[in-house]
Amino acid sequence: MKAIKRIFDFYLDASIHIAFGVYALVHITDITLGFEVDRHLAWFLFFGSVACYNFVKYGVEAKKYILVANRYHKNIQLVSIIALLIALYHGWFLSLEVWFGVVGLVGLTGLYALPLLPHAKNLRSWGGLKIFIVALVWAGATVILPMLSAEQPMTKDVWVETVQRFIFVLILLIPFEIRDLAFDAPDLKTLPQRYGIANTKIFGSFLSVPFFFLIFLKNSVSSGEAIAAGIVFLILGFLMFITGRRQNRYFASFWVEAISVFWWFLLLLATTYI
Q: What is the value of pTM for the model shown?
């Protein structure tokens, strides 16, 4: 059992689980907007997420962003390097337009993690911006990039999907904000630091309402999509209700991050059988 737990913890710590969340959101875009996602883009985002998230989580704390002394982190670094190489392989098949989008999102991620100038702060330290930057990057990566790859027009449905995805990720980040309240520096000015845990949870609960009702602004929405979104809406509301400052170790890192995958499976079932 200890070996299984170590493998499971490494799976979470190496950002593989969160990469599956990104992969699931890409395929949600495939279903809700009605086109086939390029498999090279899907795997590029999966492996790129592993490398990128590990860099943000561990790299910025390592000397020169490369050297790490901890053996456990070295193993994560090795996984990150392998993931980056695989991502670059799949990236070879992406169009120039997609790469422009990737560069923009990577640049935003870099500004989030790294200071612009020596002795300067990164965007992550600019009060309250953290979760909005992350949500923007996720929405761009899982909606806009697939549209660019498929050479689809940026219709109203695409923008509605993008805003809905932004809100979805924003809600998922709230349990992490509350969990990290004891560790975040005061100058981060996260939502729980500014407004308290209760008000932050209320904010997340209110966000779940436009998350659901936005789908009815689309020109085309299937009953299966509406049912799946309704179930996810209820899950997000329940998530805000049960989220607390004291959390089980796996509450945010596994269960919250698994909601994206669950939504994908719901959509597959709903659109197939309804």
A: 0.92
